[in-house]
Each structure stands twice: as structure tokens, then as C-alpha cells.
Amino acid sequence: MKYLKQSLQALCLLALTATAFAQTHEVLMKNRGSAGPMVYEPDYLEIQPGDSVKFIRKHRSHNAASIAELSPAGYQGFVGKIDEEIEVKYDKAGFYGIKCTPHYAQGMVMLIKVGDATLPDSYRAFKAPGVANKRFQAIYSRIDQQ
Ligand SMILES: [Cu+2]
């Protein structure tokens, strides 16, 4: 009985520790930012597996959705509704591209790095529409300079 109680306490402690380390990162959805019109701020995040990203509605008419071509193989993806402050949890290491559906070609995109990962060549080769491609290439350049 004493052993069982100690085991339960250890389990509870373990569960508490796991949640204590998981973080929620906030990303603002904005009509205009320091990088120009239609932006996520920040446009690049490095997080740990188990962390979440919450998309905050700073201005109206934006959403957050995953980009199939810029997601790890087998990733289910998600599509937030317009003006929805969606919170997305990332468990698997890799790079995850995010777009605002109505402003994709206007360059409203961002990238999330989860855990230990190397940027796949397929991401660099992928041509996102309009300004989005330019912004992704700029993000890749910043990653390369790290
Ligand atoms: Cu938008």
C-alpha cells in the first residue's frame, strides 16, 4: 500500500513536470507590422515538442492554417476559421509552414521549427504564391545564418 502511494505521487509529479515545461507561444495576426503589410509576428519560431502556438487576433479577417507542402510527412494539418484564435500543439519535430488563407499570396506566412530538425530541401524548392515565396526565402536565409 505504501509502495502504491509513493508510485502515485511519483506519477503525479511527473505529469506536473511535463506540463510545467510545455510552453505556449503567441503569434500576432496583423494587417501591418515591421516587415510590411499582412504579417504574423513573429514570422519564425523555434519551439520544443509538446509546446503550443496560439494565434492572436490583433486585427480582423485573418486565420492560421498549415501548408501541406511545408509540413512533415504524415502531418494531419489544420485550418483555423477567420478571426479564430486557434491554439495548435506540436508534438513531432520538424518544420511547419503557416499561412493566412485570404492573404497567402500577399505574403502572410510564418515558419515554426519544432525540436531538432534540418530544413528539408523540398521546402526551399517549393514556390509559395506571390510575396509568400519571398518571405519564406528570407526566413530560410535567416535560419542559414544562425
Ligand atoms: Cu491575413
Automatic annotation (TrEMBL):
Alphabetized Pfam families for the sequence: Copper-bind (PF00127)
Q: Name one GO cellular component term.
A: periplasmic space
Q: Where is the Blue (type 1) copper domain positioned along the sequence?
A: 29-114
Q: What keywords sit in the KW lines?
A: Copper, Electron transport, Metal-binding, Periplasm, Signal, Transport
- Localization: Periplasm
Cofactor binding: number and manner: Binds 1 copper ion per subunit.
Q: Which GO terms describe its molecular function?
A: copper ion binding; electron transfer activity
Q: Which InterPro entries match?
A: Amicyanin/Pseudoazurin, BlueCu_1, Copper_blue_Plastocyanin, Cupredoxin, Pseudoazurin
Record's superkingdom?
Bacteria
Any keyword Transport? yes
**Major location category of this protein:** periplasm
- Tell me yes or no: is Cell wall biogenesis/degradation among this UniProt entry's keywords: no
- The stretch of residues making up the signal peptide is 1-22
The protein depicted here goes by the name Pseudoazurin
Which species does this protein come from?
A: Intestinirhabdus alba
Q: What is the lineage of its organism?
A: Bacteria, Pseudomonadati, Pseudomonadota, Gammaproteobacteria, Enterobacterales
